[in-house]
Amino acid sequence: MSISSLSIPDISRMEVEEGKQVLRSTIRAHRKQRGKRMLENYSKDWAETVLQFVGDRELVACYVSVNKEPPTREVVEALCKAGKRVLLPKLGPGLTRAWGFYTVGDKLVEMAPGRPPEPPGEALDPAILADVEALVIPALALSQRGARLGQGGGWYDRALKKVGPNALVGAMIYPEELLVEHIPQDEMDVSVPYAIHPTAIVRTSAADESFPQFG
Fold first, then answer.
1. Would you list the DSSP string of 91-111?
2. pLDDT in tens, 1-10
3. Is 93 in contact with 64 (CB distance < 8 Å)?
4. Which of 49, 134, 143, 154 is the least crowded, having the fewest Cβ atoms under 10 Å away?
5. Nearest CA to 214 among 48, 84, 49, 53?
6. Strand arrangement, sheet containing 148-149
7. How far apart are CA 47 and CA 197, in angstroms?
């Protein structure tokens, strides 16, 4: 099954949040063209590419994909089988945002309606991200300058501000979602140095020579 090309509307005259919402709607609609089989076909490739990206780093934060996001179930399993210590997002006390360790064989559980499944066990404070060596996050799109378009909750922007300066950071996106077009940003947004495609890792211009190299 083929999918249509991604056509980005002109948002140059829009305010930041309005422009973001238009882009989100456009990309979410485009993602709906991908069926279950197509997503499954991507899974193995993405697992191998993420392993290449992470290299010999041991403490890795990732995410659990939902809906039509780039699939991460095989990615997470591959990281664990490669001996990585894997953190996944988790709800903490009083619905606070936290992280939890996942190991092979753990059953992911849905703790709140609409939330991605999460690992069992202890909820760890986001301060643990200061020790993370590689962070693989979701995005709806990245610009070639490294601007990230998320789902709108600001969860990962806050997480990115907690990682150490030597942490390797990449966002999993479909190839067409690395945009030449401008993605509007505000003071909360954090740029991302690498786009992780199913079979390629692309350096954005947000990654200057001071950024860690992948692999």
1. E-GGG-EEEEEE-TTPPPB--
2. 578 999 999 9
3. no
4. 154
5. 53
6. 148-149, 141-143, 178-179
7. 11
